[in-house]
């Protein structure tokens, strides 16, 4: 077909991108043609390896043909972009997991979609002219085509730096960052390709390789790690603004060119991927959540207009003040329901899940599992009906023949009752996954019951609140055996952004209790500080600007600020409608003090926080309000005499 050459020479499949005048940008039809060739050669015993290259000297591939996407967006044909990205991402996943060597020769520019084609194979060759970049934030997208995975795996904070600045990597930088494998002088490439076509194996590449020229990223690593290690885009911007070095000035200038919404979401995606749960499937899923919404709700159309169509370089970005609310990021990265990206290799349709406890947290968690393809049966005394979940009459029915039973329950006593009901109905080797927050002893008691019944057990309380449950961005703190944790891992990957194996049974509950004791105490201190600032005549915004970037910084201040209108949107901006209710904080602080008493631990701050929240809920109208509503409580009170 036009624009691409596909052939077999000897035992080597050859794919050459042939649009040199367009820097070999890939069209939708080119993506489909590459996928068809790879599918054919996968089963062809006469093809032992694949070579990918591009025509001309200027580029291997400068990206996807965004002109097609822009035209569709102007027609409000958002479906075209969604189909394009879904099919492109499926191709990226196939290249990543291809069972035969794929050797790509990356001359000139390799950017955006070109990274997805050229940088997921087994042997990625760069030369003197190679320039690799992920510039998507400059056009209102996020680094995609699986590039977010490489960014998350890059050393230190290179991933955030490369995503937000769109810095171009030369050969040595690309090898350092994990986008390439070998530097080979480009004069040797034609001969190497001929040798591969004549039946030589990829081992010949190593023999031809040479040390890559010394480049700049390694020398900048300490500065990059220092400034780009923040939790959010705002943290990174604040760090750069406090530094007057040439590096910080140039980085700030680069950030100011790009879509704030895209950059904020790129940081969040990289952070969700960083760690042992990273996978190409999870990366593509997170990327597709954004790109499928980019035309209608993001800055993509405006970004293309300013960069490619009108070329005025003056995009009218959303959140032009670069203060992107956390809720905006959450909306762009929420699960897509029935429109979730489907990759053949990652479908979960064979997994049968019983979900018991479909309240404010459990219902969206169960719905996310159903959207991912699990067969979910659910039970709750309130008779709630999450989308995609089959409601059954009792816990035993939900557990019948289930591969995994998940519980989200109010306390340890109810957990033990439910466990006694479901364990006899579960098949041997199945998993009971408790996501409730309960006392450590109850978790260990149920673990012992499960072991006696031949059932795996993991206690995995969550952090992230109702918003995190809906967005599929929870953090799971897990206790149990290695085998049980491994079986729970696919569930964690669907329902959350991070899972930590904390140790044996009960360790997950121990981690949650310690975490929430810190949370309760720091929220009290944060509310006290705002109340004191008011009475000292200090402007709340000024206080936030100082504390959020100083030694008093904390999650309670930066992410969940209790002062309305300050920082990211929080329950304080909605009259303290609960994201995490005060009475739940009383419960968790009570568990911390119960555990402290059991092991003779001295926790005076935790005890005081429990006393304050108990009084707030029982005597001061805190019942039914968010735990950050302590702020108006302190504002209204005077110092005790």
From TrEMBL:
3-hydroxyisobutyrate dehydrogenase-like NAD-binding domain ranges (all copies): 506-631
GO MF terms held by the record: 3-sulfolactaldehyde reductase activity
Recorded family membership: Belongs to the HIBADH-related family.
Entry keyword set: Branched-chain amino acid catabolism, NAD, Oxidoreductase
Pathway assigned to this chain's UniProt record: Amino-acid degradation; L-valine degradation
Enzyme Commission identifier(s): 1.1.1.31
Key word Oxidoreductase present: yes
Domain 6-phosphogluconate dehydrogenase NADP-binding: 352-503
InterPro entries attached to this UniProt entry: 3-OH-isobutyrate_DH-rel_CS, 6-PGluconate_DH-like_C_sf, 6PGD_dom2, 6PGDH_NADP-bd, ClpP/crotonase-like_dom_sf, ECH_dom, HIBADH, HIBADH-like_NADP-bd
Name of the protein in its database record: 3-hydroxyisobutyrate dehydrogenase
Taxonomic placement: Bacteria, Pseudomonadati, Pseudomonadota, Alphaproteobacteria, Rhodobacterales
């Amino acid at each position: 077909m036009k624009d691409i050459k596909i052939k077999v020479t000897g035992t080597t499949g050859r794919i050459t991108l042939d649009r040199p005048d367009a820097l070999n940008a890939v069209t939708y039809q080119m993506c489909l043609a590459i996928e068809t060739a790879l599918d054919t050669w996968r089963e062809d015993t006469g093809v032992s390896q694949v070579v990918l290259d591009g025509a001309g000297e200027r580029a291997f591939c400068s990206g996807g043909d965004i002109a097609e996407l822009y035209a569709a967006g102007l027609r409000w044909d958002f479906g075209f972009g969604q189909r394009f990205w879904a099919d492109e991402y499926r191709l990226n996943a196939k290249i990543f997991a291809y069972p035969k060597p794929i050797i790509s020769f990356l001359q000139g520019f390799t950017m955006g979609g070109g990274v997805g084609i050229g940088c997921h194979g087994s042997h990625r060759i760069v030369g003197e002219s190679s320039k690799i970049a992920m510039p998507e934030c400059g056009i209102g997208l996020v680094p995609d085509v699986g590039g977010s995975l490489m960014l998350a795996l890059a050393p230190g904070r290179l991933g955030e730096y490369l995503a937000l600045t769109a810095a171009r990597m030369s050969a040595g930088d690309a090898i350092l960052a994990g986008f390439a494998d070998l530097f080979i002088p480009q004069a040797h490439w034609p001969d190497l390709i001929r040798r591969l076509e004549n039946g030589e194996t990829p081992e010949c590449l190593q023999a031809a390789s040479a040390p890559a020229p010394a480049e700049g990223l390694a020398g900048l690593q300490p500065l990059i790690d220092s400034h780009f290690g923040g939790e959010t885009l705002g943290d990174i911007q604040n760090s750069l603004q406090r530094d007057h070095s040439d590096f910080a000035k140039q980085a700030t200038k680069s950030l100011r060119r790009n879509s704030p919404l895209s950059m904020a979401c790129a940081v969040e995606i990289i952070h969700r991927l960083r760690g042992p749960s990273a996978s190409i499937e999870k990366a593509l899923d997170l990327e597709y959540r954004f790109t499928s919404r980019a035309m209608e709700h993001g800055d993509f159309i405006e970004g293309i207009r300013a960069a490619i169509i009108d070329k005025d370089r003056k995009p009218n970005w959303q959140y032009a003040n670069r203060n992107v609310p956390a809720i905006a990021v959450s909306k762009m990265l929420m699960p897509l329901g029935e429109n979730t990206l489907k990759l053949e290799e990652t479908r979960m349709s064979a997994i049968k899940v019983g979900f018991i406890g479909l309240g404010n947290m459990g219902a969206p968690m169960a719905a996310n599992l159903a959207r991912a393809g699990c067969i979910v049966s659910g039970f709750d005394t309130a008779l709630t009906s999450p989308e995609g979940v089959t409601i059954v009459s009792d816990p035993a029915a939900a557990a019948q023949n289930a591969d995994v039973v998940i519980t989200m329950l109010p306390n340890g006593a109810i957990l033990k009752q439910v466990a006694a009901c479901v364990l006899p109905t579960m098949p041997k080797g199945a998993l009971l996954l408790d996501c409730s927050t309960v006392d450590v002893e109850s978790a260990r008691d149920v673990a012992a019951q499960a072991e006696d019944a031949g059932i795996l057990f993991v206690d995995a309380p969550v952090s992230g609140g109702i918003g995190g449950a809906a967005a599929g961005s929870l953090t799971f703190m897990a206790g149990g055996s290695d085998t049980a944790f491994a079986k729970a891992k696919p569930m964690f990957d669907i329902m959350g952004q991070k899972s930590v194996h904390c140790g044996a049974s009960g360790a997950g509950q121990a981690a949650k209790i310690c975490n929430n004791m810190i949370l309760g105490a720091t929220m009290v201190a944060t509310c006290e500080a705002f109340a004191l600032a008011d009475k000292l005549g200090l402007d709340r915004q000024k206080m936030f600007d100082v504390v959020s970037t100083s030694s008093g910084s904390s999650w309670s201040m930066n992410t969940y600020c209790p002062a309305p209108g300050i920082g990211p949107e929080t329950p304080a901006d909605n009259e303290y409608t609960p994201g995490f209710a005060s009475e739940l904080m009383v419960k968790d602080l009570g568990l911390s003090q119960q555990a402290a008493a059991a092991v003779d631990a001295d926790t005076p701050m935790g005890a005081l926080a429990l006393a304050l929240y108990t009084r707030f809920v029982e005597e001061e109208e805190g019942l039914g309000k968010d735990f950050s509503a302590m702020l108006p409580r302190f504002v209204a009170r005077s110092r005790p005499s």
